Amino acid sequence: MINNKLMAKTRNIGISAHIDSGKTTLTERILFYCDMIHKIEDVRGGGDGAKMDHMELEKEKGITITSAATTVFWKGISGKGTTFADGIEKDTKINIIDTPGHVDFTVEVERSLRVLDGAILVLCSVSGVQSQSITVDRQMKRYNVPRLAFLNKMDRMGANAFNGRDALIEKLNHNAVLMQHPIGAEDGFCGVVDLITKKAYYFDGDNGENIREEECPADLADQVEELRGTMIDAVAEYDDEVMEKYLEGNEPTEEELHKCIKIGVQSLALTPVYMGSAFKNKGVQVLLEAVTRYLPSPLTCAKPTAKTSSDETVEISPDPAEELLAMAFKITDEQFGQLTYTRIYRGTLNKGETVFNSRTGKKVRIGRMVRMNSNDRENIDSAHAGDIIAIVGIDCASGDTFVGDSDSVGLSLEGIHVPIPVIELSISCKDKNEQAKMSKGLAKFLKEDPTFHVFTDEESGETRIAGMGELHLEIYVERLKREFGAEVTVGAPQVNYRETIRVEAPFDYTHKKQTGGSGQFGQVVGVLKPLAADRKEKEDQVFRFNNEIKGGSIPNEFIGACEKGFQDVMDKGPLAAFPVIDCEIFLQDGKYHDVDSSDMAFRIASRQAMRKAINAAQPVLMEPIMKVEVTTPDEYQGGVIGDLSSRRGMIQGSETDPGGEVIINAEVPLSEMFGYSNDLRSMSAGKATYTMEFSRYHDCPSNIQSDVMKERAEKLANDD
Ligand SMILES: Nc1nc2c(ncn2[C@@H]2O[C@H](COP(=O)(O)OP(=O)(O)OP(=O)(O)O)[C@@H](O)[C@H]2O)c(=O)[nH]1
Q: How many A from CA of 43 to the centre of ligand 1?
């Protein structure tokens, strides 16, 4: 019972947004108002820098690269207890994950959304919905995360809460409803009127810590009344009783409105919109009240699911008394060993206990557990369902599931959606000593980040790293130098092309060998087809195998070997040895031999059949196409568009935001985007910025295809 009460007072939230919208600043303010820090520092300021950006590199680049979990306790707006009539819980425990905004680190966002029950979508009230807002919104939808919107930077020139709300409606299709009316605008923005209570809130003191509650300013009364009507119209419908009453002419009470909003938010049908200026310390505490009121607790959030080893889906109820089920969602390395951020979904985790890693089956002893406050940590003895904590000094990979009982090994909390890497480069060191340092670093990064890949090129023997973009890899190369002292040399970044087929091709291949001893025999017959669009359910679905063998013409025991054989060839396509994607095999017939058939024989037969079939199925080379959004002052618009076009870019549209900046959207092949940050900087006197993310693979123009094939052939010849 006690635990249930604790759980009802827990909120696991993420703060997601487009780059530079002010997530870190907002998180800092939340820490401050919850007494977790005693001084506010500007994110870009000197001194120690903002607390949430704990890595040196983040401070330097002014962006958040890794997300940090932080626990805060919110005492309510008065700081003493409840201010509102319906009694906000006094100390709500809010676990916050500060998520990174740069698209190259999008897996960090995905991971945090996986373990969160609610989120604050931060938008800049000048720029509104930007490209990354769309991405994080899509991610939130994928994980069914209910959200509140916060229009930050209300103090900036051109800030407009109504435009912000409209952008949420038009661009993100949200049922976005303003919950506040701004008081003053831009420089003069000084507070908000709460549309439920019609009270005005001002944020006094050096850091906005003294909240002054007053009557609504008389000159705003009409607008507030009108906006309040719109709000009630929109929210009343979430509760039948309230709606009925309202239709009969009775205005809902405050309590009833809260109830309706809560239902709307938690059913993902409603996005209440708040506003403020994190930087100028306005509006943050009121947002926290909304978090505690409307976002779900681990008890009321959508039930998480797990997969059993036989691929069945089971629902998890967050009972602290049941067997432990927890997921490691982020790993970092510290001086004293690995720090594993963990969400507990069920059961209770106690210090000194032994649990099991469900993926490896290995025992894991929990020596030390901590609650994180950015970089400070508090030792704790136990944590229960619904909580987010960090375990010190255990060995596991990000995404691993922990279970309490060895019988449950194999159970897995659904994995994280991992986007495919689109860029790679070679990396080398001058001697063995450096090599050892580099390997240590790379092994660490691999554990931390599923979008980071390391592999050895079979032909050249060189080490290559692959990831989500130039900046992504640049950061790791820099970290190798700084954190591991490895002096590495990197090659030019290269595009990760893909190969696919355009038409069907039948196959019929017999592998037969009869040289002394036992022979080898296997025949496979069927057809290779391009994977139909409607079957590419998942973005990473690249190969499907359909066993249509009837009457045992290939015995069941060999089918697995056949599948492996077909799949082997997918790693290297016939054109330029890039992975093949979007193929489907239908294995329809074959022959076997009682004595000479073996797994090996069928695997070889399938490999050969696949090679021939791909060649006959019009293979083509595909290149990654990136979604690019450039924000630039008007005067550079022509230059930027001309340059994007010369990079084979397709301009999809441009618009001017209320701040007077032009936002250009385009799709550009990744191969044309290398070095773009420097080029854009010099083109716009450093004033334009851009974001880029993977959109899709598309056929290369034939001249590019021949260039890539020629390059590959030359490389192979050189390696020989
Ligand atoms: N005028 C104004 N500036 C703000 C406000 N909030 C943040 N900023 C500024 O906007 C810039 C970006 O703020 P951050 O908090 O680093 O933004 P972020 O979203 O965490 O950035 P990334 O982690 O890089 O995505 C900084 O220079 C902040 O000082 C605000 O309310 N008003």
A: 7
